[in-house]
């Protein structure tokens, strides 16, 4: 009995592009989104301190967001969100 790999097969309904991703990409994508959320929360806290007149808060650097996060629900070819997904299992 061999090893099985489960992937998600995505097909774009607009351009016909087909691509696959696995659970590693899902976990990486989720982690990157959480990091961006943390950066947003930190920047909001800094902005709220500045609104109350806290001058030193102006010198706190902004947390940078990762703008290169792959949207797994969008076609990488034409950026359409008209995507169908299905689970595919490969025997290795």
TrEMBL record:
Keywords, in A-Z order: DNA-directed RNA polymerase, Elongation factor, Protein biosynthesis, Transcription
Source domain of life: Bacteria
Protein biosynthesis keyword on record: yes
GO molecular function: translation elongation factor activity
GO annotations of cellular component type: DNA-directed RNA polymerase complex
Full protein name: DNA-directed RNA polymerase subunit M/transcription elongation factor TFIIS
Native organism taxonomy: Bacteria, Bacillati, Bacillota, Bacilli, Bacillales
